[in-house]
Design brief:
Radius of gyration: 20 Å
Mean pLDDT: 83
Strand content: 15-25%
Number of domains: 1
Low-confidence stretches: 12-23
Pfam families: THUMP
CATH class: Alpha Beta
CATH superfamily: THUMP superfamily
Largest sheet: 5 strands, mixed
CATH topology: THUMP fold
Order of helices and strands: EHEEHEEHEHEEEHH
Keywords: RNA-binding
Number of helices: 6
CATH architecture: 2-Layer Sandwich
Structural class: alpha+beta
Strand order of the largest sheet: 5-9-8-6-7
InterPro entries: THUMP_dom, THUMPD1-like
GO molecular function: RNA binding
Shape: globular
Number of strands: 9
Protein name: THUMP domain-containing protein
């Protein structure tokens, strides 16, 4: 499915709560996902060029970039971009903040996200043990879905032979939700690339100078 390979190119975070319309007839998650993708493709029809297409995510400051060439690996493309950024400390756009690879799209329900993520999780965790991992969930205009429910479901798929590590995981399960569409990916360089944040690499925040131990002793004496 060509719609599965996308990059979340984020200029800024702008989260809000979307109201559900209970008066609409019940549809399956697959129907809702296809409707959302069809709408995105229709809006972006005039912007299709070459191997990529920019899709309107419906969220301010966020663009989904669809890979039209099925032979292209979205994770390898993003890896190459960030490798060059780290090597040269240069980036061609000053407006892009994050570039997040998404391997597959699904409807944002716990059941659909679990089914979507399972093959990618198994690729990294099957027949291994002791892999340290985390689950990163980001939601924008996403209604009432609970992040912790998604995290727990992914942890159950990974299994108890592996360990959660929130500070320095080897593998990160990425779940990005935009209104009625969810993107899923499993990556190994999430923290190496500063959560895929270009600006954090080019313009890292200044570290606060550590206080000298003697200065701390003098402060305690003055307080005494």
């Amino acid at each position: 499915m060509k719609d599965d390979k996308v990059v979340d190119a984020s200029a800024a975070d702008n989260a809000a709560t979307a109201d559900d319309d209970e008066s609409k007839p019940t549809k399956t998650s697959a129907d809702l996902l296809q409707e959302e993708i069809a709408g995105l493709k229709k809006d972006a029809k005039d912007r299709k060029t070459g191997r990529f297409s920019a899709l309107d995510s419906g969220v301010k400051g966020i663009i989904l970039v669809q890979f039209l060439d099925e032979s292209m690996d979205v994770k390898k493309v993003i890896d190459h971009i960030f490798e060059q950024v780290q090597k040269t400390m240069e980036f061609s756009s000053r407006f892009i903040q994050r570039m997040i690879p998404l391997e597959k799209l699904c409807y944002p329900s716990v059941e659909d996200i679990t089914a979507c993520a399972t093959p990618f999780i198994e690729r990294h965790f099957k027949d291994t043990s002791g892999v340290q991992f985390s689950v990163e969930v980001r939601k924008r205009n996403s209604g009432n879905i609970v992040s912790m429910d998604i995290i727990n479901a992914c942890v159950d798929v990974v299994g108890n032979q592996h360990k959660v590590n929130l500070t320095a995981p080897h593998v990160v399960i990425v779940v990005e939700i935009f209104k009625n569409v969810c993107g899923v990916s499993v990556v190994t360089n999430f923290h190496q690339y500063k959560k895929f944040n270009v600006r954090m690499i080019l313009d890292p925040p200044a570290k606060e100078p550590k206080k000298d131990q003697d200065d701390n002793k003098d402060e305690h004496k003055q307080q005494a």
